[in-house]
């Protein structure tokens, strides 16, 4: 599968940047992550996300939302709150979340 970046979103929009440190492949993580991907895609105003993880356990996920209301809908989503609580207890050594408003966006794709 060729990776694809989220592109072509007209600003302004919002990002939730989740950075974390966790062991590689903890039990139950992949299933929960897949379930969360399906759930967030149902949130009106969700625009997409990109993720990367190093072999050493540092991960970054950037999720894009049209407005703060859609981002808050995801933050308050019951299954998401349950997954976050479980992750704090069982998976993540540490994490941080950064919320930002995007004023300008551009990119490049080789033809």
TrEMBL record:
<keyword id="KW-0503">Monooxygenase</keyword>
<dbReference type="GO" id="GO:0004497">
    <property type="term" value="F:monooxygenase activity"/>
</dbReference>
<dbReference type="InterPro" id="IPR011008">
    <property type="entry name" value="Dimeric_a/b-barrel"/>
</dbReference>
<dbReference type="InterPro" id="IPR052936">
    <property type="entry name" value="Jasmonate_Hydroxylase-like"/>
</dbReference>
<dbReference type="Pfam" id="PF03992">
    <property type="entry name" value="ABM"/>
</dbReference>
<keyword id="KW-0560">Oxidoreductase</keyword>
<protein>
    <submittedName>
        <fullName>Antibiotic biosynthesis monooxygenase</fullName>
    </submittedName>
</protein>
<dbReference type="InterPro" id="IPR007138">
    <property type="entry name" value="ABM_dom"/>
</dbReference>
<feature type="domain" description="ABM">
    <location>
        <begin position="13"/>
        <end position="99"/>
    </location>
</feature>
